[in-house]
């Protein structure tokens, strides 16, 4: 999978990497059992601090997306390891709140908002079903 | 060596040095010009083209002026004194040439810096880094099993020395001239037969290091066209690792041939001379062909793709880490090895202490080996 970081973005680099890995899993570009580069390797290729990559992997490990094995390195977990949980629903709600609020302030209709959400959701699904890997 | 030989030496030195340095701007990555990162689409703009043109024209002019002066000095020395004194002018002439090429590079570097600071490239472009998380799963390197063949050749070289020790002649030829005549003999001893083996072992270390360095080096994908660039980068490593393994292999063979000469099995010295000149020549020609065909980072390799690159020009603003556009110094970057900005090949991240340790270690190893052999053969 290609990982691209915008160095001028306001979003911290570790958040960008985390989001892209999750998007990769959602779209099926990363499948359970796929390996990711080691902390050192990824940091070296990106030219960033080791701690930044370490932070991403620790985070994704806690969230159940990745597993770090001694032998095989960083591996994408099986889907059942990151099923919807109560804590995710809570987090999603709190993340969505400001976005929905801003949409309402700017006068975006409920239909338009839901349409946008649906589009994004389906885009990931289409990718996954298309089986486009890499 | 006579005057004719000296003039030939001049031409070989000057053409190879000028040929190398004056083609660098044309085979380096297209998003870098004289050590300064630029938007790739401006590589062929008249402004940047002019910088290259000026560098090349001046380089040619300086080169020929230095060459003519040096030849005149050598001719005078030859007529006044001897051919031996005439050859003394070659080394300073080469240094003057290298120095003036360095000055020309620094000039172009400064000029590029000014062009960049007067431009609005930064505002018009994004700064994006792209990597492929599967990059190291592809075939990046030629098989390291080749090194096994090196060990076999080394063992054969050693075995030949031991096995033919008794039947070998009492005087062993050590130095040859270009016509295959022996210019220096040494007395037979076990040391003489071990020397090629030591050289082979030293070479083995150097080649394993080079191979390891290519494999370790940082993945550098051009964000404006990642699909093409990642394939070019992969091919670039693969081909250079193949080159390293091939070069090492024929050098190992060369020292085995020299051993065959020492033990008196290979008596035709003209054939030995042919190998001793031919093998380095093959290596140089192969390196030139490879450099021109692949370009730095593989930018001259044609890759077929149906995916199109990004519309937004990309500029990676890492000039501040490249001192004089040549030396990479970035303590934040964990990589040790990185592609050069000017020319072909790799350099080190001097912002990391480990790089210094490796660099100094390698220098000490090579210098130590030189000292060892000179003491050893006394």
Outline:
The complex is a heterodimer of chains A (134) and B (378). Chain A has 134 residues and is mainly alpha-helical. Chain A has five helices and four strands.
From the N-terminal CA to the C-terminal CA of chain A, the straight-line distance is 5 Å
For the record, the count of structural domains of chain B works out to 2
- Alpha-carbon Rg of chain A, integer: 17 Å
Secondary-structure content class of chain B: mainly alpha
Give helix % range of chain A.
55-70%
Number of helices of chain B: 10
Summing up helix and strand content along with how strands pair, one would put the structural category of chain A as mainly alpha
Strand order of the largest sheet of chain A: 2-4-3
Question: What number is the mean pLDDT of chain B?
Answer: 91
Rg of chain B: 24 Å
Number of helices of chain A: 5
What sequence of helices (H) and strands (E) makes up the elements of chain A?
EHEHHEEHH
Describe the structure.
The complex is a heterodimer of chains A (134) and B (378). By secondary structure, chain A is mainly alpha-helical. Chain A has helices at residues 13-26, 39-46, 50-62, 86-105, 110-130; strands spanning 2-6, 35-36, 66-69, 73-76. In chain A, strand 3 (66-69) and strand 4 (73-76) form a beta hairpin. Chain B is mainly alpha-helical and 378 residues long. Chain B contains ten helices and nine strands. Chain B has a two-stranded antiparallel ribbon. Chain B has a two-stranded antiparallel sheet with strand order 4-5. Strand 1 of chain A pairs antiparallel with strand 3 (128-132) of chain B.
């Amino acid at each position: 999978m290609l990982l691209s970081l915008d160095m001028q973005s306001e979003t911290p680099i570790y958040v960008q990497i985390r989001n892209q890995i999750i998007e990769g899993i959602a779209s099926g570009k990363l499948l359970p059992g796929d390996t990711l580069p080691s902390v050192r390797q990824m940091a070296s290729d990106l030219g960033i601090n080791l701690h930044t990559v370490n932070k991403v992997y620790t985070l994704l490990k806690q969230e159940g997306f990745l597993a770090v094995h001694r032998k095989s390195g960083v591996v994408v977990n099986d889907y059942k390891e990151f099923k919807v949980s109560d804590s995710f629903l809570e987090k999603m709600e709190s993340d969505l709140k400001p976005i929905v609020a801003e949409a309402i302030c700017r006068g975006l209709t409920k239909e338009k908002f839901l349409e946008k959400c649906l589009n994004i959701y389906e885009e990931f699904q289409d990718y996954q079903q298309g089986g486009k890997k890499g | 060596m006579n005057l004719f030989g000296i003039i030939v030496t001049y031409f070989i030195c000057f053409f190879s040095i000028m040929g190398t340095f004056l083609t660098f701007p044309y085979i380096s990555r297209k998003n870098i010009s004289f050590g300064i990162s630029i938007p790739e689409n401006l590589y062929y703009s008249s402004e940047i083209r002019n910088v290259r043109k000026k560098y090349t024209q001046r380089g040619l002019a300086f080169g020929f002026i230095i060459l003519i002066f040096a030849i005149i000095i050598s001719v005078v020395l030859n007529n006044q004194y001897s051919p031996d004194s005439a050859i003394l002018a070659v080394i300073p002439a080469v240094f003057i040439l290298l120095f003036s090429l360095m000055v020309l590079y620094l000039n172009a570097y400064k000029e590029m810096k000014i062009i960049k600071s007067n431009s609005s490239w930064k505002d018009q472009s994004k700064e994006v880094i792209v990597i492929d998380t599967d990059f190291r799963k592809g075939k990046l390197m030629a098989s390291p099993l080749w090194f096994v063949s090196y060990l076999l050749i080394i063992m054969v070289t050693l075995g030949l020395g031991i096995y033919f020790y008794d039947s070998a002649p009492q005087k062993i030829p050590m130095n040859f001239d270009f016509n295959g005549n022996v210019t220096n003999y040494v007395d037979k001893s076990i040391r003489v037969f071990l020397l090629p083996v030591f050289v082979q072992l030293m070479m083995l270390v150097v080649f394993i290091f080079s191979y390891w360095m290519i494999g370790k080096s940082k993945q550098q994908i051009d964000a404006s066209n990642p699909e093409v660039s990642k394939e070019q980068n992969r091919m670039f490593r693969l081909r250079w690792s193949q080159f390293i393994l091939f070069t090492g292999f024929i050098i190992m063979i060369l020292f085995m041939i020299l051993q065959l000469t020492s033990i008196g099995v290979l008596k035709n010295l003209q054939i030995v001379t042919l190998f001793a000149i031919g093998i380095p020549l093959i290596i140089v020609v192969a390196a030139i062909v490879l450099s021109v065909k692949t370009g730095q980072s593989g930018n001259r390799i044609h890759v077929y793709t149906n995916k199109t690159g990004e519309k937004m020009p990309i500029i990676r603003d890492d000039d501040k880490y490249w001192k004089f556009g040549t030396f990479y110094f970035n303590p934040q970057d964990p990589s040790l090895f990185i592609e050069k900005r000017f020319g072909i090949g790799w350099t080190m991240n001097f912002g990391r202490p480990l790089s210094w340790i490796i660099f100094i270690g390698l220098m000490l190893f090579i210098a130590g080996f030189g000292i060892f052999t000179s003491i050893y053969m006394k």
